[in-house]
Amino acid sequence: MSFGHKHILGIEQLSADDITLILDTAESFKEVSTREIKKVPTLRGKTIINIFFEASTRTRASFEIAGKRLSADTMNISASTSAVVKGETLEDTAKNLEAMHPDIIVMRHGHSGAPHYLAERCGFSVVNAGDGAHEHPSQALLDLMTIREKKGTIEGLVVAIVGDIAHSRVARSNIYALKKMGATVRLAGPGTLLPTEIERMGAEVTTDMNTALDGADVVMMLRIQQERQGKALLPSNREYSRFYGLNPENLKLAKADALVMHPGPMNRGVEISSAVADGAQNVILDQVENGVAVRMALLYLVSGGEQLAEQSA
Questions:
Q1: Do residues 129 and 73 share a domain?
Q2: What's the domain range around 163?
Q3: 240, 177: one domain
Q4: Which residues define the annotated binding site for carbamoyl phosphate?
Q5: pLDDT at residue 183 in the model
Q6: Is 38 a catalytic residue?
Q7: pLDDT 10s digits, 45-78
C-alpha cells in the first residue's frame, strides 16, 4: 500500500489503512533507536524545519531526533527567535522559509488551522505538531502504537479519556484515530470542560469519572490546560483532583491489566497521583519512546518513502 498524503494535518483526513501503514512503518523504525549508531541514511539531503510558535519539550525534541536519525538536515525555529515578534505574518514567514527550499515544515501553532493555511500556500510538506485545540496527530499515532504494542490490537478495546476535553487537541485526534481503528471511546470530565455536542464524534460522554473507568482497557489522563482557559472553569485543583484525579483506588474500576497513559506534561497530585504515574500499569515513557519512531515514519512517508527506498535499492 502506498501513502498518498503530502501533508499530515490531522487524523481526520487519514483512513484506517493509512493509520495502519504509519504504525507498521513506525515499528520498523523503532529498532534504529536501539542501535549503537542511531542513524539511517533514508532522508539524507532532505531539509526539515521545526517551527514552534508554542512552548514544547517532548514534541519538538522528538521531531528533531526523528529527523536526525533519518539523516535529514534539521533546524529549529521558535516564535521568540523568529521575525514574528517583529510583526511578520505567518504567510510571509512561510514564504521566506520556502525560498530556502526546505522539504518539510513541522509546525506547532496556537491557532487551529494554521498548518492547513501553510499547506495551501506553500510547496513543501507540512506536518502538524499541534494546532490550537484542534488536532495533534503525531501524539494520537504514538498513543495508538503504544496501545497496539501492549494489547496486540486496538479494535474492540474500551478507552477512557479523562480531563480537559474542551481544550485538548490530543483528545480530538485520539477520538478520530481510536474510532477509525474500532475502539470504543469514553470521555469524562467536568461539564465546563466537555465541549457541547462532542458526542457527535462518536464517543460516549459522561461527567462521572467512575462510569468512564468501569471495565476500561486503557485510561488516558489529560492535563488541565489553564493557559487556554479564558476564565476559571474549575473551583480549584483540589476539588478537581477529588472528582477527576486518577488514583490507585479508582483505577481498580478499570480492567486489572488496563494501561495508564498521559501525553504529558503531568500535574502530579492533580489529574494523576504519583502512585499511579509511577505504577506498574503506566506506559507513559513507552509513549515518549514510540513518539520518535512514529515521527520518523511520518517524515519518511510524506517524503515519498517508497520512491526513496527504490532509488537507494
A1: yes
A2: 137-283
A3: yes
A4: 58-59, 108, 136, 139, 264-265
A5: 98
A6: no
A7: 999 999 999 988 899 999 999 999 999 999 998 8
Query: Would residue 108 show up in a list of annotated catalytic residues for this protein?
Result: yes
Please report whether residue 2 resides in a domain. Answer: no
Q: What is the pLDDT of residues 124-148, one digit of tens each?
A: 999 999 999 999 999 999 999 999 9
Q: Which residues are annotated as a binding site?
A: 58-59, 86, 108, 136, 139, 169, 223, 264-265
Same-domain check for residues 142 and 276: yes
- 74-96 tens-digit pLDDT: 999 887 766 666 778 888 888 88
Same domain, 189 and 202: yes
* pLDDT, tens digit (0-9, with 9 covering 90-100), for 185-241: 999 999 999 998 899 999 999 999 999 999 999 999 999 876 666 566 777 888 899
Q: Are residues 226 and 246 in the same domain?
A: yes
Instruction: Say yes or no: 249 and 307 in one domain.
Output: no
pLDDT of res. 87: 74
42 among known catalytic residues: no
271: confidence class by pLDDT, cuts 50, 70, 90: very high
**Pick the catalytic residue: 25, 47, 59, 146?**
59
* Residue of 108, 148, 172, 186 marked active site: 108
Do 43 and 95 fall within a single domain?
Answer: yes
Q: Is 86 a catalytic residue?
A: yes
Q: Point out the annotated binding site for L-aspartate.
A: 86, 169, 223
Can you give the pLDDT at residue 310? 59
* Total structural domains within the chain: 2
Is position 83 within any domain?
yes
What is the identity of the amino acid at 120?
A: E
